[in-house]
Specification:
There is one protein chain. The chain is 48% helix and 16% strand. It has 428 residues and is an alpha/beta fold. It has two domains: 229 residues, 3-Layer(aba) Sandwich (Rossmann fold); 181 residues, Glycogen Phosphorylase B (Rossmann fold, 3-Layer(aba) Sandwich), CATH 3.40.50. The strands form three sheets. An eight-stranded mixed β-sheet has the order 4-5-2-1-7-8-9-10, with helices on both faces. Strands 13-12-11-14-15-16 form a six-stranded parallel β-sheet, sandwiched between helices. The protein has a two-stranded parallel ribbon with strand order 3-6. Helix 10 crosses helix 16. The chain is globular, with a radius of gyration of 23 Å. The C terminus is likely disordered.
Length: 428
């Protein structure tokens, strides 16, 4: 199968972690035998804006095109005015440069389908490009892309994508329900062969001497023997629950052997400056909390190997990949009981779930795990089993390819059935 992936972000040298899960899904599809190209539009960054703003400076460093892992990555430039009618720039301004490249590549590659990872930043382009090329278009709802107000432009953009895409995947059942609300229908009314709940999944942890890695990384972080490491991975922002986690750390000042490591700071793109002020302004946090920069994807496993407890304080998620990676490494998890977390747990009790968004209860759960190493091991084993059974990316991408091929057959049959009618109408 020949696929053109349309994604809102894809890693580049200056930000190797931007869109990394899009990259991993693309690689999994290629390893399964699909011929894959990637289309990831980027906003034009005027030189002056790049000097004034870290985000736009990063945009200016995105390469126009590159070859990576046997795949061509195309990054057409489109005009975007910051803070003004954002959906217009995504849906309209990005279409023409993307269409030019898509048509050019389709003439050579003859794509069987287009697939977007994101329904807002890419789904709206994908269905339009699919119509232009005359090929099947599919999209994946990942989380924040579909949590939009249906009365606002973004909500209407996503609703158009859901209506017009030939096939829609959802990272979770919750996202499928949200999609139904955007369309003004019940989830049960959505056609099951066209609206499919399927996590993109994660890659398995690489093979390594993790005990050696654990000792080395803990030494680098300044941990003493007997200290318990609580790790958080992800964007440093309020919606990721970073301030509840810091409040929980403050409540655990009576546990001197507890150390917190927050990995994911990206100044200019998050609230890491505010989080740093919290830490530096509180003596009990300064001595026990480290706020570290976002790291390359391959380094995530090293931090996970060094940790004893994984803290997942996010307020909402489509399907939290960082959480799944921690579970794959056999870490016990403390998390707020948001829908995605409840779906992952599936009633097994593997994850220690806390009522949202109670920082004190979160602190108490961390305290209980810190004092119970055998319980940590038990929960970690259960967590690993869940990922192995339901959330491996290669396996789930194989299912996606089957669904796309099946939907393409359905579309061809429908076209064949209506072709005689269309011919008669043209003759009339």
């Amino acid at each position: 199968m020949r696929l053109l992936l349309v994604v809102p972000s894809y890693p580049w040298a200056a930000r190797s972690f931007a869109g990394v899960f899009n990259q991993r899904s693309a690689i999994a599809l290629r390893e399964l035998g699909a011929e894959v190209e990637v289309l990831s539009p980027r906003p034009f960054s005027p030189p002056l804006l790049g000097r004034l703003n870290a985000r736009w400076k990063a945009y200016s460093k995105i390469p126009r095109s590159q070859e990576e892992e046997g795949m061509a990555i195309h990054r057409p430039t489109y005009l975007q005015v910051p803070g003004v009618a954002s959906t217009f720039w995504i849906e309209r301004a990005a279409f023409l440069p993307c269409r030019r490249i898509a048509v050019e590549r389709h003439k050579r590659a003859k794509f069987d389908a287009l697939l977007s990872f994101d329904l807002l930043g890419a789904g709206c382009l994908t269905w339009q490009l699919g119509r232009s090329l005359g090929v099947l278009s599919a999209g994946w709802a990942t989380g924040g892309d579909i949590r939009v107000d249906p009365s606002k432009p973004a909500g209407r953009t996503v609703a158009r994508a859901v209506r017009n895409l030939d096939l829609v995947f959802y990272q979770s059942e919750e996202l499928r329900r949200i999609s139904a609300r955007l369309l003004g229908v019940e989830a049960a009314d959505l056609e099951p062969t066209r609206h499919v709940v399927l996590s993109r999944g994660i890659i398995e942890p690489p093979r390594s001497n993790w005990q050696e890695t654990r000792s080395r990384v803990r030494a680098q972080l300044g941990f003493r023997e007997g200290q318990t490491a609580v790790l958080s991975l992800g964007r440093i922002s309020a919606e990721k629950g970073v301030f509840e986690l810091l409040a929980a750390a403050r409540s655990l000042a009576d546990c001197p052997d507890l150390r917190f490591v927050l990995v994911g700071a990206t100044p200019g793109f998050d609230q890491s400056d505010e989080a740093r002020r919290w830490i530096e302004g509180d003596a009990s946090l300064r001595s026990r909390v480290q706020l570290l920069p976002a790291c390359p994807p391959e380094d995530v496993w090293q931090y996970l190997a060094a940790a004893d407890v994984f803290a997942f304080s996010s307020h909402r998620e489509g399907m939290p990949n960082s959480l799944l990676e921690a579970m794959a490494m056999g870490l016990p998890v403390v998390a707020f009981a948001i829908p995605a977390v409840e779906e992952i747990d599936g009633g097994t009790g593997a994850l220690l779930q806390i009522p949202p968004f109670d920082a004190e209860a979160f602190a108490n759960a961390i305290r209980s795990l810190a004092r119970a190493p055998d319980e940590r091991k038990r929960r970690g084993r259960m967590a690993r089993d869940i990922v192995q059974s339901r959330f491996l990316g290669r396996r789930n991408m194989a299912v996606a390819l089957e669904r796309i091929a099946e939907r393409a057959r359905i579309e061809r049959k429908d076209l064949a059935r209506t072709a005689p009618v269309a011919t008669e109408r043209r003759a009339g």
